[in-house]
Amino acid sequence: xxxxxxxxxxxxxxxxxxxxxxxxxxxxxxxxxxxxxxxxxxxxxxxxxxxxxxxxxxxxxxxxxxxxxxxxxxxxxxxxxxx
Length: 83
Hints:
Pfam families: DUF2498. The protein is an alpha+beta fold and 83 residues long. The chain has a single domain (6-81), classed as 2-Layer Sandwich (GMP Synthetase, Chain A, domain 3), CATH 3.30.300. Helices cover 39% and strands 23% of the residues. A two-stranded parallel sheet has the order 1-4. A two-stranded antiparallel sheet has the order 2-3. It is elongated and about 40 Å long. The two termini are 14 Å apart.
C-alpha cells in the first residue's frame, strides 16, 4: 500500500512538516501543522486556517491550504505513518 515510503511517528513527522513550513518562502506567522492523518497513500495535514470572527476564510486561508497541500505532496512520497 505504501510503496517505498518509510514509516514515521506522528510527532517526528509534524516536526519535519513544521520545519518545512518555517523555511518556506510563503510562510505566514502562525502557520503550523498541528495534526496529520494517513488517507490511503496520502498524508493529510491540519492546523489553523485563519478564519475571521464569523468563520469565513481570509486571504491567509488559501496560503495555509496551499502549504498543507505542498506538505502532502512532498512528505507522502517519503513517509507513511507508523502504526
